[in-house]
What we know:
Layout: H1 3-17, H2 22-41, H3 52-60, H4 68-87, H5 114-123, H6 129-144, H7 148-152, E1 159-160, E2 165-169, E3 175-179, H8 182-195, H9 218-231, H10 240-253, H11 258-265, H12 270-273, H13 275-291, H14 293-300
Antiparallel strand pairs: 1-2, 2-3
Helix pairs in contact: 1-2, 2-4, 6-8, 6-10, 10-13, 13-14
Amino acid sequence: xxxxxxxxxYRLYLNVEKNxxxxxxxxxxxxxxxxxxxxxxxxITSIDDITRDxxxxxxxNLDRQxxxxxxxxxxxSIKMFFRFLIRNNYTTHNPSEYIDxxxxxxxxxxxxxxxxxxxxxxxxxxxxxxxxxxxxxxALMYATGIRVSELCGIKLSDVSLSHNTINIIGKGxxxxxxxxxxxxxxxxxxxxxxxxxxxxxxxxxxxxLLNNGNPMTRKRFYNILQKRVAMSPLSxxxxxxxLRHTFATxxxxxxxxxxxxxxxxxxxxxxxxxxxxxxxxxxVIDEYNHFHPRAKKRRDE
Length: 301
């Protein structure tokens, strides 16, 4: 069976039988498309010709800048694809079965200071609908801590400007309510009442739209954020998830309850949320080293 045909069958399965979310399907298919492109360079087009060495080589040769968690995701996509193929009798061998994922390392979340977030948001002067959209998306990400996929999925009916809340559909289709401040409300209100209609090419409930009228995508938001950071006075490299990390860390630094942060972030397990306590501890250690006289003396020696 041709790999391209197998990927199409997998797409139909994810969409029809599994009823996976649009973001999940896009993620899996993007990973498989990259894998397919790699295999084409070595003249592999059939699923039965794919070997363990091909997969291992692909994972090892992914962009050197990709972190291990991204490589693990690529490998997981390939493993799930082959499990589907075997389960549906498209092939009898699974070359991905005994390939170990890159070792997971515990890394502290990277954050942006509140002052720098203010500089970034204020640096976007609103002269047209794209300026308003970009400023609103970044401000909303910082104010609510939502994921990029959740931002892209917000619909008009999800937002209550009178209560400063948004109903979010998160991972596993779990619903939660997030809140935003009055300043963010003003930014969002201006976008919705003055600028959003300029993106409309067809009737849609999605709030954030591309120039062609389609819903915003994760990849496009990433590019927008990079562009806006580059145009600002900031020198720090900022990726989308840093806005979420910053939201959580600032809440913790201001004595918010860990359970409340878990609820706002949409974490199913509080152990995921506790990583931010390590960031908080690092801040304490840095302040100790900077201010305690014994630590200062040791540093000066």
